[in-house]
Structure formats: structure tokens, C-alpha cells
Amino acid sequence: MGNSAEKIYDIGIIGGGTAGMTAAIYGQRAGKQTVIIEGSTFGGQITSSPNVENYPGIASVSGSEFSMNLLDQATKLGAETVMEQVTGIVDEESGIKVIHTTGKEYHCRSVILATGVTHRHLGVPNEERLTGAGVSYCATCDGMFFRGRDVAVVGGGSTALQDAEFLADYCRKVYLIHRRDEFRGEENIVKRLEEKENVEFILSTTVRDIIGDQAVERLILNNKKTGKEYKLEVSGIFIAVGHIPQNEIFADIVKLDENGFILASEDCITSHPGIFAAGDCRTKEVRQLTTAAADGAVAALAACKYIAG
Ligand code: NAP
């Protein structure tokens, strides 16, 4: 195992999104040594938001800039960061919690799970095969490839609305396909979209299939009200139908609910002493940037209290 085994961190934070990095900021400021272990992208979900307009005190900021500022703030305070995939946690008799990653282990007095959520897939034929060839889950990452083309966005939440607004600046036409006839996302973005000439809402409609040999060529849609099935020619489909947790690797150490979220309330305390859960990965009503940040603070302070005994 790696030499990191010799060091004992006060707080091991799994997940480098808004919740995890806020926890690191609070932990470091409380004089605790933290390590943030992230498997893919520091910043998490919000990095793919083109424009964040509902974080108090910041009228408008891109998700990537917001994330970079958070990471900068945490590391300048002394938080260590590693880019590794966590495989599990073992609580030793000594009370030290050992976070196992692919190849290393991190010994910690307390642990904060801030693993967030991952993109939900539509589950239609060809979706997996054409991912990266016209099927995308991130408009800000892939939107540029569709400049001047016709694309579809699927979903009715804030992510889908923001994606449609972002893509309307690059694409010739943006179809926003939603399974109901009213949106779940922010009303003010809906109003802005209604005013855009190259955006068309396709409501009460589901995607049945994605057609294309080497890349996406068209969608097969189904109008739920009329039952009519028809084709829509697009070269890209941006899927924004929500998120699902990925907490299976922690199921033997903390209790999960029936949907896979970590059971913890507003105090961020899980079923296992010394292990806390913060942000979208835990059971909660409101999953927002502000509530992720709030959880990070609450979990870090709870971890400090736990360490103090
Ligand atoms: P969401 O709010 O859960 O919306 C998911 C959408 O996908 C819903 O409209 C849902 O339809 C639809 N959907 C789910 N499964 C589907 C399926 N199998 N087929 C077709 N449609 C399906 O997810 P989100 O938009 O990613 O937002 C997640 C959270 O992040 C929300 O709390 C949101 O407010 C927040 N957010 C914040 C910002 C920001 O700038 N601060 C940006 C983006 C998101 P129904 O409506 O019919 O259920």
C-alpha cells in the first residue's frame, strides 16, 4: 500500500463537488487536516452548468469558475486533494477509518461522504452505443461540436432549460423535449426560452429511440397525448433527465434508503459513528448548490465535534 497509510487525516472527504469542498474549507479553518478524494472532476455536477444565477451573493457565475474558486479556496487553506477512485471504507478497532482507493489507502479520524449523484440515462435503444457520437449528458462540454446544427435537449428541470438556453446560442435549432406539458425548472428560464426564435418546445412527448449508424441522425418520438410516433432529424441529443446516487460501495458501512441515497438528516449524521454525509448523496428534500454548500459546513463541524470526542 502507498505511504499515505502512515499519515492520519482528521477528515477524509470522499467527493470533490460543492459539498465536499465546502467541508474541506470549514475543516481546514477549524484547524483540521483534510484530504479530498475525487474520482473524476473537481467541482462535480455544477461544473457543467453554463450559468449559475441562484447562489446568494453571486448574481451570475459559470459553474466551472465557481468550482475552480472553491478548489482554490480549499487548497490554499491546506486541504490535500487526490484524484483516485474510492473502493470502500473499513472502520478499524482503533476507530480509525481507512478509505481504500484503487492502489492506496487513507487513514482518517472521520469521514464525510459527499459523492453527489450521476447522470440518469433515458434507457432507450442505442443510447449507450451513440454516447460520444451525438448523445451527450453535458451541453457545456459538448455544445461547441454542434455549432450550426439541429439538436434536441431532453428533460424538464433546470438543467434541461439551461442546456437549451446555452445551445440556442450555437445551434441552428434546439428542440426541448419533455414528457409532461409543464416544466419543473425555473420559470424565468422558461420565459427566456419562449422568446428565442430557434427554440421549440415538444411537450408531452418521450424519446422512443435514437437512430444513427456512426452518429446520431434522428430520434423516434412518441406524443403521449395522441399516441403518434414520428421522426425528428437532429445530429445531437443532450439528455438532462436528472440524477441518481452511486453509493453501493458504502452500503456495508452506512444505511441507504430504497433509492440508494445515504440515510442522514439535516445534521448529516449517518448510521455509522464518525461517518457523515453531505450534499446530493444523502436523503433530502432540496438538492441545490446552496444546500450542498450548507451540508458541507454542517458535516465538517459535526466531524470536528466527533474528533474532539
Ligand atoms: P430534475 O430537477 O430532477 O429534473 C429532471 C427532469 O427530467 C424532470 O423534468 C423529469 O420529468 C425528467 N425525467 C426524469 N426521468 C425521465 C425519463 N426517464 N424520461 C424523460 N424525462 C425524464 O434534474 P435537474 O434538472 O438535473 O436538476 C437537479 C437539481 O439541480 C434541481 O434541484 C435543480 O434545481 C438543480 N439545478 C440547479 C442549477 C443552478 O443553476 N443552480 C442548475 C441546474 C440544476 P418530470 O418533471 O416529469 O418528473
Average pLDDT confidence is 95
- Ligand inventory: NADP nicotinamide-adenine-dinucleotide phosphate
Helical residues, percent: 10-25%
Helix tally equals 6
Q: Cα-atom Rg, whole angstroms?
A: 21 Å
Give a quick account of the main beta sheet: strands, pairing sense, barrel closure.
Answer: 7 strands, mixed
Residue ranges: pLDDT <50 for 5 or more in a row?
Answer: 1-5
CA(first)-CA(last) distance: 29 Å
Summarize the helix and strand pattern as letters. Answer: EHEHEEEEEEHEHEHEEEEEEEH
- Find the count of extended strands (DSSP E, 2+ residues): 17
Write structural notes for this entry.
This protein has 309 residues and is an alpha/beta fold. Strands 1, 2, 3, 4, 5, 6 and 17 form a 7-stranded mixed β-sheet that branches. A 5-stranded parallel β-sheet has the order 8-15-9-10-11, covered by helices on one side. Helix 1 runs parallel beside helix 2, helix 1 runs parallel beside helix 6 and helix 4 packs parallel to helix 5. It is elongated. The structure holds NADP nicotinamide-adenine-dinucleotide phosphate (NAP). The site of NADP nicotinamide-adenine-dinucleotide phosphate has 24 residues, from helix 4.
